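Late entry, evening session. Most of the bench is empty. Finally got around to the prediction I had been postponing all week. Sequence below, unchanged from the version circulated by S.P.
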Amino acid sequence: MNREHLIAAGVDYDEGLHRFMGKTEKYEKYLRMIFQESSMDDLLRFLQEKNYSEAFRAAHTLKGNSGNLSMNRFYHTINPLVETLRGSDGPNAPVSSEDPMPLYEKVKEAYEQARRAVEE
């Protein structure tokens, strides 16, 4: 992985590596894994289905994983979406008055930036 590309994509490589006690291979392994799980696909599907409680779970998982990996730009981008979806009781419960899809588009962009940097 190219450290400079990761930093440019909003990943605090040094902080993440510190969280993994300096174990570069392990940290980079987990950085790759976040892009192999289905949470982003699940998030989009649940948003399209207006299943906001499940969308919240997927977004919250991504937020936690990205925070643990020091994917700071992505973390700070997904947080408003998590808060918009927080408290959705039931599959079609109304979320806040804010439409979650524009927030999702920002999340997707930050996710793709980080993904491209990890793959380089």
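Two things to note before I forget:
Residues 100-119 form the longest helix (20 residues).
Residues 3-119 form a domain with the Four Helix Bundle (Hemerythrin (Met), subunit A) fold (CATH 1.20.120).
Will write this up properly tomorrow.
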